[in-house]
Write a structure and sequence with these properties.
The complex is a heterodimer of chains A (289) and B (275). Chain A contains ten helices and 13 strands. Chain A is of the alpha/beta class and 289 residues long. In chain A, strand 6, helix 7 and strand 7 form a beta-alpha-beta unit. The chains are: A alpha/beta (289), B mainly alpha (275). The interface between A and B is medium-sized, with 30 and 27 residues.
C-alpha cells in the first residue's frame, strides 16, 4: 500500500534519509520512533509529497509528489506542532472540509466526541486556542473524513485522559481499513496503539519489529491503588487522570484507557515508594464503558 | 478551479485580519483624504486643476508606496507561513500546488489592489457629489496602471518569497529589488549614466525594463504630454513611441513581467521542498 524504495534525502550535505526501503500494508498501525534528527519528520514529509527526494515513494501505486490531490485525499495528517493559523476555527474547518470533499458536520461530530464544542469556539482564531483544543481540532479534521491512512505526529500528547480514551476509540473504529503511522520520540507513548514498531536513527530504519496486538484500543481498565500515606503530589496527578479518592487520600480508584496503561504506570513510577497496592482489572470495566 | 478560489478566499480572510492590511488601507485612504483636506483640487500648478490634479498626485504617491508595500508584505506573509509551519499543515490537505500558489496570488492581488482602487474611486465619488468634473479617461487609465503595477510587484514578491527560505532573507531581497528600481529611475541615475558616456540606447532600454520607470512615465504622460518635467530617457521614449503606444506598453509590460515572475516562482515552488 505504502512503499518507500531507496528513498534518500539530503539537506546541504546533511543526509537525513539514507536509502530507506519500507513497505507498509493496509491495517498496519506503526509507531515511528527515534530521537530528534533521526529522520521521522522527513520521512512523513516525503510521504505527504512535501519534499523532493531520491528514490520512489508510492501510495497505492500513486506518487504523492506528482499526484498529490489524489493521494492526500486519502491521508489524514495531525502535525506535532499546530500551525499558527490566524483564521477562525469555522473557516479552517470549512476550508478543510471543502478541500477534502467531506462535510463539516462529520468533523464537528468527531470534535464533539473529543469534548470540543465547535459552536462555542467557531469565531476564535485557531492560534488563540489552547494546546489541547488545537490538537482535538486537528484530530477532528483528520478523522472527520474518508481516509485510509492516518499520519500523526505525537497526536495524543496534549490530550486529557478522557479525550485520549475517546481518541483511542476513534482509532479502534478504523482498525480494519486504515493504516496508521504514529510518530513519537518515546515508544512508551504509543506502544499500546500499534502492532509494528519502526525505529529510525540517522536517516535509517534500524529496527522493524512486530508487537503483541492484544491490547484493546477501546477498552478500559478499572484501577485501584493504595498508598502508604496521603500525599498532595500524587493526589493531584491522580485527579488529573480522573481518579476518585475513596479512602482519605490513601485509596484511589479510576478508569484507565487500555492503550494508556503504560503511560499511567510511567506516571506512577515517580511515586513508587508510596504505593502499597495496585490492581488493574480489564474484565471489571465492561460495565463502565 | 474550485480549490483555487478556496485558497484565494483563505488568503483574503487572513489578510483582512492582518495588521499590515489595516495600515495599508489607512495609508491609501489617508492620502486621498489629506489631498482633499489640503485643497489640492483647487491647486492651479501648471494649469492642472480639479480632480485631475488630485489623481496625478495620488498616482505619484502610489508609485512611491505601493511597490514596497506589496513587496514587503507579500514576501513576509509567504516566507513567514513557511517558516512558521503553516505550509506543512495546509499543504497536507488535498489541494494541488497550482491551485494553492495561484489562489494565494489571486487572493493577495485583490487585497492589495482593491484598497488602492477604492481610495481613488472614493475620490471620484466625492468629486461627483461636490460637482467637480471627473476626468473619466484619466481615472480609467490610472486604474489600469495601478492594476498592472500591483500585479507586477505581486509576481516579483512571489518569486522572491519562493526563493528565500526565511523572512529576513525575503525582506532583504525585496527591499534590494525596490532600491535597484528606484536608483534606476531616469531622473536619478540615468542622467548620470548618460553624462558618463553610457550609450543613450542603453539608458533608454533600462528605463523601458524598469517597471517603476514605466509606471512613472505613463502616469506623468497624461499630466505633462511634453514630458518636460521628467528626465531624458522618458523624453526619448516618448519621442520614439509616441504617447498612445507607450500608454499601452505601460499597461501591458508590467502585467507581463508580473506574470512571468509569478510563473517562475511557481516553477520553483513546484520543484522544491514545500515546508
Amino acid at each position: 500500500m505504502i512503499q518507500f524504495s531507496h528513498v534518500s534525502k539530503t539537506f546541504k550535505r546533511n543526509q537525513v534519509l539514507d536509502n530507506v526501503d519500507l513497505k507498509i500494508e493496509l491495517g498496519e498501525r506503526i509507531a515511528l520512533v527515534g530521537s530528534n534528527g533521526a529522520g521521522k519528520t522527513t520521512l512523513i514529509r516525503c510521504l505527504l509529497g512535501q519534499y523532493t527526494h531520491n528514490g520512489v515513494v508510492t501510495v497505492n501505486g500513486l506518487v504523492p509528489r506528482s499526484e498529490r490531490s489524489k493521494v492526500l485525499q486519502k491521508i489524514g495528517f495531525v502535525p506535532q506542532l499546530p500551525p499558527p493559523l490566524k483564521m477562525p476555527v469555522s473557516q479552517l474547518v470549512g476550508f478543510a472540509a471543502a478541500l477534502c470533499n467531506s462535510e463539516q458536520k462529520r468533523m464537528e461530530d468527531v470534535a464533539t466526541r473529543l469534548g470540543l464544542d465547535l459552536r462555542k469556539i467557531s469565531r476564535l482564531p485557531f492560534v488563540k486556542l489552547s494546546g489541547g483544543m488545537k490538537q482535538k481540532l486537528l484530530i477532528s479534521i483528520a478523522m472527520g473524513r474518508d481516509t485510509n491512512i492516518l499520519v500523526m505526529d505525537e497526536p495524543a500528547a496534549n490530550l486529557d485522559p478522557d479525550a485520549r480514551h475517546i481518541f483511542f476509540e476513534l482509532l479502534a473504529e478504523r482498525l480494519e481499513n486504515t493504516t496508521m503511522l504514529i510518530s513519537s520520540h518515546r515508544l512508551d507513548e504509543v506502544a499500546s496503539l500499534v502492532n509494528r514498531v519502526l525505529e529510525m536513527d540517522r536517516g535509517k530504519v534500524v529496527l522493524d519489529d512486530r508487537v503483541d496486538d492484544d491490547a484493546s484500543l477501546s477498552g478500559k481498565l478499572v484501577c485501584r491503588l493504595a498508598l502508604r500515606r496521603p500525599e498532595a503530589a500524587i493526589a493531584k496527578a491522580l485527579s488529573g487522570w480522573g481518579f476518585r479518592d475513596v479512602g482519605n487520600g490513601t485509596e484511589w480508584e479510576g478508569l484507565i484507557a487500555g492503550p494508556d496503561r503504560l503511560r499511567f504506570l510511567g506516571m506512577l513510577s515517580r511515586y513508587v515508594g508510596l504505593l502499597t497496592k495496585i490492581s488493574m482489572d480489564e474484565s471489571a470495566s465492561s460495565g463502565n464503558q | 478551479m474550485k480549490h483555487l478560489w478556496f485558497t484565494a478566499k483563505l488568503d483574503i480572510v487572513e489578510s483582512l485580519r492582518a495588521r499590515w492590511f489595516m495600515i495599508y488601507t489607512l495609508v491609501f485612504g489617508g492620502i486621498v483624504a489629506l489631498l482633499f483636506a489640503f485643497g489640492l483640487t483647487e491647486s492651479r500648478v501648471l494649469g492642472f486643476i480639479g480632480l485631475s490634479r488630485l489623481l496625478v498626485t495620488y498616482i505619484q504617491l502610489s508609485m512611491a508606496i505601493l511597490p514596497i508595500f506589496v513587496l514587503i508584505t507579500t514576501v513576509r506573509s509567504v516566507a513567514g507561513d513557511r517558516e512558521a509551519g503553516v505550509f506543512e499543515y495546509l499543504l497536507s490537505l488535498p489541494v494541488s500546488l497550482s491551485s494553492w500558489f495561484w489562489g494565494k496570488i489571486v487572493g493577495r492581488y485583490l487585497v492589495v489592489f482593491l484598497p488602492v482602487f477604492a481610495a481613488m474611486a472614493a475620490a471620484a465619488g466625492w468629486a461627483m457629489i461636490k460637482d467637480v468634473e471627473v476626468p473619466w479617461e484619466m481615472f480609467l487609465y490610472y486604474t489600469g496602471l495601478l492594476a498592472s503595477m500591483s500585479w507586477c510587484f505581486l509576481g516579483i514578491a512571489m518569486l522572491i518569497s519562493t526563493m528565500a527560505r526565511s523572512i529576513d532573507v525575503a525582506q532583504g531581497a525585496a527591499f534590494l529589488v525596490w532600491l535597484v528600481m528606484l536608483l534606476f529611475l531616469d531622473l536619478i541615475l540615468l542622467g548620470i549614466m548618460i553624462q558618463g558616456h553610457l550609450p543613450p540606447e542603453a539608458a533608454v532600454a533600462l528605463a523601458l525594463v524598469n517597471p517603476l520607470q514605466v509606471f512613472r512615465t505613463a502616469a506623468l504622460m497624461l499630466f505633462d504630454p511634453q514630458l518636460v518635467v521628467i528626465g531624458p530617457a522618458a523624453y526619448v521614449i516618448f519621442d520614439y513611441f509616441g504617447g498612445p503606444l507607450f500608454k499601452v506598453y505601460a499597461l501591458i509590460y508590467p502585467a507581463i513581467l508580473g506574470t512571468i515572475t509569478a510563473a517562475l516562482g511557481f516553477q520553483l515552488f513546484r520543484r522544491g521542498d514545500l515546508p
